[in-house]
Amino acid sequence: MGTTRTPLHPAQRGIVAGLLGAIALVVLAIGVTAGHSDAQSGRRLTAGTVPVGTDRSGGDVDLQQVPDLISTADNSGEVVGYIRKADLFPVTAPSPSDASELAGAVVEEPVHEVWDRTGQKLLGHFYPGGVGFRSLAQEKAQRISPAHPPKGTTATTAPG
After folding, report:
1. What is the chain written as a DSSP string?
2. Which pLDDT tens digit goes with each residue over 84-114?
């Protein structure tokens, strides 16, 4: 079975770089089994960080080495939850012709759902543009949501 590699869109590279930078501040076990299974496949979900060395030249990521749930941190570096691998690395990546058309274009970064370690309970959302994580309680208090992001951000909802 071959390695599955997906080229990263410029917006995805920024998100991954931001997440990796924030995660680097926190010491976590890499690829720890979460202990819960995926309802669709029945297999156990893994949770952890994107292992060092999976971002290869050209921006390709070896998705088989990436856990199902990728830890994410708030702006202070504290791990606040997990973003699903499928949300950060969607199966439908832009083709090379799409990528060349997007070069220099303003790309809206998606808002990502942040889950608990089991991938079962939604905790909040990770907003682009330096906003970072907002819990469901914070979203309610600030009257924001993925459909109505904080002012000053141009965000779309993540595919999935």
Report:
1. -PPPEEPPPHHHHHHHHHHHHHHHTS---TTEEEEEE-TTT-PEEEEEPPPTT-B-GGG-EEGGGS-SEEEEE-TTS-EEEEEEHHHHS-S-PPPHHHHHHHTTS--PEEEEEEE-TTS-SEEEEEETTTTEEEEHHHHHHHT--SSSPPTT--EEEPP-
2. 999 988 776 566 666 556 566 655 788 999 9
